[in-house]
Amino acid sequence: MGEADLSRETLAVWGGEGVQAPSGATQVPIVYSAAYGYPDVETWLDVALERTPGHIYSRSSNPTVAAFEEKIRVLEGADAATAFATGMAAVSCSLFSLLEPGDRVVSIKDTYGGTSRLFLEYVPRNGVDVDLCETSDHEQLEAEIGKGCAVVYLETPTNPTLKVLDIERLAKAGHAAGAVVIVDNTFATPIDQRPLELGADLVVHSATKYLGGHADVLGGAVCGSGELVDRIRHYREITGGSLDPMAAFLLIRGMKTLGLRVRQQNQSALRIARWLEEQPAVGAVYYPGLESHPHHEVARRQMRGYGGMLSFTLTGGFEAVKRVLPRLRLAHRAANLGSVETIAGPPATTSHVECTAEEREALGIPEGLIRYSVGIEDTADLIADLRQALENA
């Protein structure tokens, strides 16, 4: 059976693990070696020049890291993949390896705070023009893309207000302009959404989140065509944002349950979002699975499930947030998401901690918003926990 014959859930378990490990081990071994030796110069040179498979130095490649890269490659249906120490290393290396002075990037206002900071501060320092469009305005995005750009950078669903972009539509616009189209697929995961199948050129992940799934490892990944991934990989080799072998092992282990976790999180998030819509203390609920969500039809068309992330605002604003969050018993108050445990927090301390209150307001992020990453706990228990927190606050 080939990759095309297997479900995404099965690929999450078996992808990248077809090579027999030393001593017959059934699990990918952790290879801790800075360098790899060869018996003669000719063999060594063949590997160094990539004429034959192998490893030279672990900043460039490592057997355990390579197994993780292969697993995310097959899950995204990509030609190639490369791994990074963090999600932001994946994002920044992708941008800086593809952009040159005088280039232009078109993106959206709703990107993750670290990505937003790249676009607002660091990318322009390199002589690159950045245009951030209203996320929900596809016509504006198409118009700006049509003016010419080197990169179109999208994130869908967005962090933290769960807006959904039409990947196929915007990828067509990007390609018509000769741009490379990059999609951050962290929230959806390849279980729920495969941007490459919708026309994207590159997919980026913060593997720290759903891929690892246990809040105990940092990592990032980029998937796409061999030519583009090679450019990014070589930039990563020189700038040094390489993934550690132990981190790669933890990501591989976490990804084996990705299908199960996402299935439970999808189901719980939809039930919780519908319950929250009925609560008088809640002003608005942001979840693409809700029929009331303005982008529900786009999400229904391009996603298999709507994800485990939702957010909601409280009618009492940020003061209400400060009262409700400490009362949650089944949620970590932490700057993370995608874990087996539920995690909750405001953008001011999570997704957009890098931004000022004024910048968050300009980006359309309410201060009274709670980002809620649904874990794998029993759904009824999570709803009961939210109920008591809202009532007691």
Per-chain topology:
Elements (H helix, E strand, L loop, with lengths): L7 H7 L26 H8 L14 H14 L3 E5 L2 H12 L5 E5 L4 H13 L3 E5 L4 H9 L4 E5 L11 H10 L3 E5 L4 H4 L9 E5 L13 E5 L1 H14 L5 H11 L2 H20 L4 E5 L9 H7 L6 E6 L2 H8 L7 E2 L9 E3 L11 H6 L6 E5 L5 H14 L1
Parallel strand pairs: 2-3, 2-4, 4-5, 5-6, 10-11
Antiparallel strand pairs: 1-7, 6-7, 8-9, 9-12, 11-12
Helix pairs in contact: 1-3, 3-10, 4-5, 4-9, 6-7
- Tell the overall outline: globular
**Count the helices. How many?**
15
Radius of gyration: 21 Å
CATH architecture of the largest domain: 3-Layer(aba) Sandwich
Query: What order do the SSEs take from the amino end to the carboxyl end, as H and E?
Result: HHHEHEHEHEHEHEEHHHEHEHEEHEH
| Adjacency order of strands in the biggest sheet | 1-7-6-5-4-2-3
So what's the CATH class of the largest domain? Alpha Beta
Q: State the fourth-level CATH superfamily of the largest domain.
A: Type I PLP-dependent aspartate aminotransferase-like (Major domain)
Tell me the CATH topology of the largest domain: Aspartate Aminotransferase, domain 2
Terminus-to-terminus distance: 55 Å
**Whole-number tally of structural domains:** 2
Strand content: 5-15%
Helix fraction, binned, reads 25-40%
**Mean pLDDT across all amino acids:** 95
- Summing up helix and strand content along with how strands pair, one would put the structural category as alpha/beta
Low-confidence stretches: none
| Strands, count | 12
Report on the biggest sheet: 7 strands, mixed
